[in-house]
Design brief:
162 residues, 2 domains, 8 helices, mainly alpha
């Protein structure tokens, strides 16, 4: 075997998400992980406050600035949307009538097995099979399920329909 690999050694496989631009820049500059984190924390301080702190009579240390910067880290929260959690399943049913009915029957069967005959979701899928306009109500009922039963239903369908 030629190249940088020792004989019999496995090549290194990189997994996970790609590195962020700031991580690549820090690596190129030769910064350690600790110094990179410190720099990012200092950089998160708003410009006006940073200028006031640094231009003051007793400027804080880099460690103190990093501690202040921890308070300004952006929180990555998912934006609130008016869209229902499983409303993207509506695309599954935008097909020709035979395919649409087959999918509705699959959903109804899974609902029947997991929740029973009298459950509102089972009834809603039965209504959607008979009347195409009732699909929105069936998806609303699916959205109204608690998270774990909804996941169980969708996981059951996904595993059976592979």
């Amino acid at each position: 075997m030629t190249g940088d690999f020792r004989e019999g050694a496995r090549p290194k496989i990189v997994r996970g998400r790609p590195k962020a631009a700031h991580t690549l820049a820090a690596e190129a500059a030769g910064l350690s992980k600790h110094r990179t984190k410190t720099a990012l924390r200092v950089a998160s301080i708003p410009d006006t406050q940073f200028d006031q702190l640094v231009e003051g009579d007793q400027p804080p240390t880099v460690t103190a600035l990093a501690a202040i910067g921890l308070q300004y880290r952006p929180r990555h929260e998912a934006p609130m949307q008016d869209v229902a959690p499983v409303s993207n399943l509506g695309a599954l049913f935008r097909t020709a009538e035979p395919e649409r009915n087959a999918r509705l029957r699959e959903f109804r069967l899974a609902s029947l097995l997991l929740f029973g005959v009298g459950h509102t979701l089972t009834q809603a899928f039965a209504d959607a099979i008979a009347d195409p306009d009732a699909l929105a109500h069936a998806l609303t009922e699916l959205d109204g399920l608690p998270a774990i039963p909804r996941r169980r239903l969708l996981a059951t369908l996904a595993s059976v329909l592979r």
